[in-house]
Amino acid sequence: MYYSKIKETAEWLRSRMPATPTTAIVLGTGLGRLAEEISITTAFDYKDIPNFPVSTVEGHSGKLLFGKLGGKDILAMQGRFHFYEGYSMKEVTFPVRVMYELGIKTLFVSNAAGGTNPAFKIGDLMVLTDHINYFPEHPLHGKNVPTGPRFPDMHEAYDRKLIALADAIAAERGIKLQHGVYIGTQGPTFETPAEYRMFRIFGADAVGMSTVPEVIVARHCGIRVFGVSIITDLGGFDNPVEVSHEEVQIAANEAQPIMTELMREMIARSE
Ligand code: HPA
Questions:
Q1: If you measure from the C-alpha of residue 182 to the centroid of ligand 1, how many angstroms do you get, rounded to a whole number?
Q2: Mean pLDDT of 246-261
Q3: I need a surface site. Which of 11, 78, 93, 171 has the fewest CB within 10 A?
Q4: Strand, helix or coil at 81?
Q5: Residue 207 CA to chain centroid, in angstroms?
């Protein structure tokens, strides 16, 4: 049932899309500006795409964009579905399943995250080298979708070649890049100081409320993944500080130019 819906949606899009991109981007926090650089050929409101999750925010439907960026045909999700909004994990990851059916081979994702690594500064970019799935529901829970095995390997969730390419681009252009482990948690609360401390002990360098479900499903489909977090606040577990959505937005906006530059180059240069 779930899989036939995925197929149906992919079929609907395939007959309407202008090209067959193999690269997709989830335009999370910090990549709003990248969207402006896409020369869009076709855009679909999520609400018009059959079987797509319905937006919980009135009058705020996201868009699926087809266009060109860095000379490449790309597909981009402008707006993602978060678990804290009330979507099931099957809904959160539905678009990634559809991407696979459309022929996507490489997925770029971004997010905002709180730093738990004391060496991090607000505004730093952190390349995801690995993740910890701390969501209460697993996106592969239930009948296995036949794009991958029942028990998928996760030893290289984030493609090492793409990480090396990011390091090369950063060195060339003088972009400071941190590397680290992202822990995905349900939110919507930011962490208590004790929770930030726990996540640090777990081995996380940053914590956020997205990305992990999409990455798990992408890997289940054999799509390679590259992810970047903007460190928008620091888990002050020794010296508790208030965290607000507004400061997360401000820090993410300030980091947008370098995030955009890095992602644009990554997309242009990745195969
Ligand atoms: N915790 C969880 N999610 C976040 C944070 C945080 O500190 N910052 C931005 N997204």
A1: 11
A2: 86
A3: 171
A4: coil
A5: 13
**What's the CA gap between 230 and 50, in Å, rounded?**
33
**Is 96 within 8 Å of 223 (Cβ atoms)?**
yes
Q: Give the tens place of pLDDT for each residue, 193-246.
A: 999 999 999 999 999 999 999 999 999 999 999 999 999 999 877 777 778 888
Beta bridge partners of 181: 130
Residue 237 in contact with ligand 1 by CB distance below 6 A: no
- Full residue range of the structural domain in which residue 243 is found: 2-269
Query: 144: alpha, beta or left, given left = phi > 0 and alpha = psi -120 to 50?
Result: beta
Ligand 1 atom 3 nearest Cα: 208
Q: Tell me how many domains the chain contains.
A: 1
Strand 106-115 to 23-27 pairing: parallel
Q: Whole-prediction pTM value?
A: 0.95
CA 107 to chain centre: 8
Q: Is the CB of 190 under 6 A from ligand 1?
A: yes
The residues near 148 (Cβ < 8 Å, ≥ 6 apart) are 219, 220, 221, 222
Judged on CB neighbours under 10 Å (0-12, 13-18, 19+), 160 is exposed
Which domain CATH number covers 139? 3.40.50.1580
The number of beta carbons lying within 10 Å of the beta carbon of residue 53 is: 20
Which residue's alpha carbon is nearest to atom 2 within ligand 1?
208
- Name the residue of 80, 212, 232 to mutate for ligand 1: max ligand atoms within 8 A of Cβ: 232
Cα gap 196→193, rounded to integer Å: 5
